[in-house]
Write a structure and sequence with these properties.
By secondary structure, this protein is mainly beta. The chain has one domain. 8% of the residues lie in helices and 61% in strands. It has three helices and 19 strands. The strands form four sheets. Strands 2, 3, 4, 5, 6, 7, 8 and 9 form an eight-stranded antiparallel beta sheet that branches. Strand 11 and strand 12 form a beta hairpin. The longest helix is centred in the last third of the chain and has 10 residues.
Length: 238
């Protein structure tokens, strides 16, 4: 929730410290300690956000994937399936459910390497699938679909048909994949000028599923107007 300067960030093999917040492995669980304050337009004060999120992988995947021929950008689906336990103090909320987590790393910023990014994931019983596609900064396209078995082992599979989705209120273009080229939006969770996250109802690889979908417009993200607006939504502590 807060951009940190180099002096407030440290990393070890099994721990990432972000000022008072941290992400660390404890045995087979990933524990996320959140000690933050939010910042919203029109509200002069910042409210405390504190709590613990515990992610317990049900399957782990050791394979990473390069998203460009030079290998400058690498995506790693660490746990295609997991369980999550959320215990927040402020606000007073708690729940458990199905989860997933992945990681991106690169030798340059995302906006230097890409223009558009669409991604979705779904659980199929004990298995999971991920579809991702986009346009690189040089204009070339990339697209791939993966299925992960119950042990987390990935398999490249044929991409389902393109399933267009309605634009968001910010007129963000979004799309996904579906067996019949169709998907419907259950709920849009995040609607920003350059990013949208939604829950979808679709059919993938022969099964009716609920999928999580993201769209990212990095041309919009890099625009001076959006860069000017970002500190009002995400505080910066340098």
């Amino acid at each position: 929730m807060t951009e940190r300067g180099q002096g407030q960030v440290s990393r070890e093999q099994d721990r990432l410290q972000l000022d008072a917040s941290s992400v660390r492995w404890e045995g087979d669980a990933l524990v996320i300690e959140i000690v933050e304050r939010d910042k919203r337009l029109g509200i002069p004060w910042r409210r405390a956000v504190r709590g613990t999120v515990t992610v317990r992988p049900e399957a782990l995947n050791a394979r990473s994937f390069a998203l460009d021929p030079e290998g400058r950008h690498v995506w790693h689906c660490i746990a295609p399936r997991a369980r999550i336990e959320v215990e927040m103090e402020k606000p007073d909320l708690c729940w458990t459910g199905a989860a997933y987590f992945d990681s991106n790393r690169g030798e340059e910023s995302l906006e230097e390497g890409f223009r558009i990014w669409h991604w979705s994931r779904a659980h199929h019983g004990k298995e999971a699938s991920v579809c991702y596609e986009g346009v690189r900064r040089n204009g070339s396209h990339f697209a791939s679909a993966l299925k992960f078995d119950r042990h987390g082992t990935p398999e490249d599979v044929d991409l389902p048909l393109v399933a267009p989705l309605p634009n968001t209120l910010w007129q963000m273009e979004r799309k996904t994949r579906g067996d019949r080229g169709h998907a419907s939006v259950i709920r849009t969770w995040e609607d920003a000028p350059f990013y949208a996250r939604s829950t979808l109802s679709t059919r993938l690889f022969g099964q009716e599923v609920v999928a999580v979908q993201e769209s990212l417009d990095l041309d919009r993200f890099a625009s001076p107007i959006v860069q000017f607006m970002l500190p009002y939504r995400m505080p910066r502590r340098t």
